[in-house]
Amino acid sequence: MRTLSSMLVVVVVFVAVVAPARGQTSHAAPPSALDAAVQARVAAEAADRDAVLRLLARPEVRAIAGEAGIDLRRAEAAVPTLDESTVRDLAGQTRQVEGALAGGQSRVTISTTTIIIALLVIILLVVAIG
Question: Which of 39, 91, 103, 112 has a CB 3.0–4.6 Å from the CB of 48, allowing a cystine?
Fold first, then answer.
């Protein structure tokens, strides 16, 4: 009887230890996946910054900024210093303006002008505050 109870204890301990150990799996992503995610995020942020700078370089934007008395050199210099979320928001607005200008509009409309001025003011405010 003593041998049977010893064997039963060994089996119960074995099952209690092995079952949870087998259920443990690694949930961490491989380093290559982490590197790819970081690279994708960096590339997206760089593309957003390029979009904002590309808009600031357009002749229509330069004309509007000149009429509004906004220094575009200061705005262009500020783009690399903006945080990621601000750049992402500005890039979304920038792409809307670029879409309107590329869509065959021969002149800048009031809404596009307003967006451009708002973008410039936001850039300058973020730099002045930050």
Answer: 91
